[in-house]
Structure to design on (237 residues):
């Protein structure tokens, strides 16, 4: 029996899909257009020298990717609940498929286009390195953090979808769960720091999916807080 058959099928279907390549192409074009717009419009306000331009464009594109990864969670918010409403979910389990086969198949099927769209923006972001003001280590740390956020957001949508039947409730439940993680945890961390509990605040902050993204430019060791946060968010997902 093929290992993860639904995943393999979805990858083969996507490889033959023209829409996958069009999505990747137009996402990269939109990213290039946005970067050019930023460079033309905001160049008089930036620091003199190429370093200021590169750093500003890199930050702008990075935060655009940050919100993109969170917003694309809508791809999985109704993937299982829709099967429940249509009465087709039980048919999948009449075969030899396991729960993880269905879960991973739904995850791949509903996030593949957005994933390739995200990867298409990486070369555009790397152009900021050529402009100066950004190191290669910082770029790849941001890329890894964005991939981590992308995976976490889609898995959150998949989780809520398994407990829902109505599309509206699935969407609102996913939004609530993401708000708890991306806003609730930083709020609790700030409250703990205010109450003079730095150790608890530092430990809780590692579970914030956006923590590694914000720390991508910091200098740290291999087993520093950046890598610890990446690992904990992955395990949590």
């Amino acid at each position: 029996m093929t290992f993860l058959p639904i995943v393999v099928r979805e990858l083969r279907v996507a490889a033959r899909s023209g829409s996958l390549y069009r999505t990747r192409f137009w996402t990269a074009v939109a990213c290039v257009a946005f970067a050019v717009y930023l460079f033309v419009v905001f160049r008089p306000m930036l620091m003199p020298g190429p370093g200021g331009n590169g750093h500003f464009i890199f930050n702008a594109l990075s935060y655009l990717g940050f919100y993109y990864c969170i917003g694309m969670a809508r791809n999985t918010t109704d993937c299982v609940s829709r099967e429940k409403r249509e009465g087709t979910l039980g048919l999948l389990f009449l075969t030899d498929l396991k729960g993880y086969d269905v879960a991973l198949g739904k995850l791949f099927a509903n996030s593949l286009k957005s994933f390739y769209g995200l990867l298409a923006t990486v070369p555009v972001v790397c152009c900021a390195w050529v402009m100066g003001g950004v190191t290669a280590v910082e770029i790849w740390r941001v890329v890894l953090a964005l991939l981590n956020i992308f995976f976490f957001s889609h898995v959150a949508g998949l989780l809520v979808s398994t407990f829902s039947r109505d599309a509206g409730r699935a969407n609102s439940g996913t939004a609530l769960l993401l708000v708890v993680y991306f806003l609730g945890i930083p709020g609790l961390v700030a409250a703990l720091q205010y109450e003079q509990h730095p150790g608890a605040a530092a430990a809780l902050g590692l579970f914030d999916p956006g923590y590694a993204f914000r720390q991508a430019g910091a200098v740290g060791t291999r087993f520093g807080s950046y890598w610890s946060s990446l690992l904990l968010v992955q395990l949590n997902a």
Notes: The longest helix spans residues 167-194.
